[in-house]
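Subject: Protein entry, chain in single-letter code together with its fold tokens

Category: Structural biology, sequence-to-fold work with a learned token vocabulary.

Notation: Tokens come from a learned vocabulary of local backbone shapes, not from coordinates.

Start of record: The labelled sequence and token lines come straight after this line.
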Amino acid sequence: MRKTLFSVSAVCFSSSFIYASHPGNHINIILIMADDFGYECIGANGGEYVTPHIDSLAEKGIRFEHCYSNPLSTPSRVQLMTGKYNVHNYTAFAKLERKETTFANLLQEAGYTTCIAGKWQLGKEKDAPMHFGFNKSCLWQHTQKAIDSLRCDTRYANPVMDINGETVNFPYGSFGPDIYCDFILDFIRENKDRPFFVYYPMALTHSPFVSTPDSKEWLPVRSSTYKGNPIHFTDMVKYTDKLVGRVMNELEKLHLKENTLVIFTGDNGTSGAIISTLNGKPYPGGKGKTIDSGTHVPLIVSCPKGQIGKVNYNLIDFTDFLPTICEAAGINIPTGLDGKSFYPQLKGKTKDIRQWIYCWYAPQQVCDEKATVFARSHRYKLYRSGDFYDVQNDFNETTPIPRQKMTKEQKHIYNSLSKTIDKYKKYAVLRKEKK
């Protein structure tokens, strides 16, 4: 009996010591990332879609105008979770190298309880989510394929997913996005009295474009086509917004909103099958392309004791999320990262802001010779090839500016961006092309 009491006391003391040694980690953190959801998909950004809950998040927090991801899913996720550019650690599509340390690993080590729900696509090992720092997981495309035996998609109607590593086939009438969200809400309720981290990589709004339970024509059958009917995309955006609202309402109900950092973003541009409207003009989706429609994503943050109703125009990229989350949690930011914490900006401070963004992009044929490499500022983008664009006036990057026609200012920016590309040359080691 005495041994048992001593063991329990030791555990409690150990846990208390962890929290006491990191006083800032009492803040809860929720990172929500919609899939194939570009900047234009939010009403607050000037988009045509009705997104009242996300808009409300912006009204009560900070809306960022210049957040950039990679153009495709796995490259963005690897960058987001590790705080490193793909030139360092991207080796294959649908894979995250097990030697990498993620934001969940770091938070878990600091005493957080952690959860992930939604799309995985980062390795089929049964223990992969746990290995990368997640105590609880509810994931599509973890150990199972993305399609069933009839080649129908399994992420939406009647989904197949892994709950803490065990495969579950959900019954007719189930909708995957509801299950992911329910799992997260249950996790929040269970851990409301301790620091928690939730990573919510949504399945929505990735194709196939399907009706939702809120659609007039909702029919819970798996899509037999990959793309589906783009007419349903609007309903999928609405449902994405609804699920964000469910999370925010639960925080309000549990009196956790004032102590929870909430970050909302998208992993890359919208599918090219979708033509939206942004500020009254047509805006084709650019997923997979390195132009702005493929890399410009929404970023909205609600921060405890942070700014309210502000618009931030500073550059942010996906390597910045890990150090930001670490600083918010009050834990040391690891060395060797490419990202800069933007947590001080959430409090209104503008010291040490990012001046450029770098991208090394070779999603399928992972070899430096195949990679598209660029560096950019707010307005200008320089590719490793030497092509230099005024993105503000040449959105689709159709007409590179010749060196002889550059202004003095443009030459200065060109040279500065060139140095950024050169900075990463030594890491751009030729890799054997994947066959």
Q: What stands out?
A: The first strand starts at residue 28 and ends at 34. The first helix runs from residue 2 to 21. The CA atoms of residues 360 and 373 lie 5 Å apart. The mean pLDDT is 93.
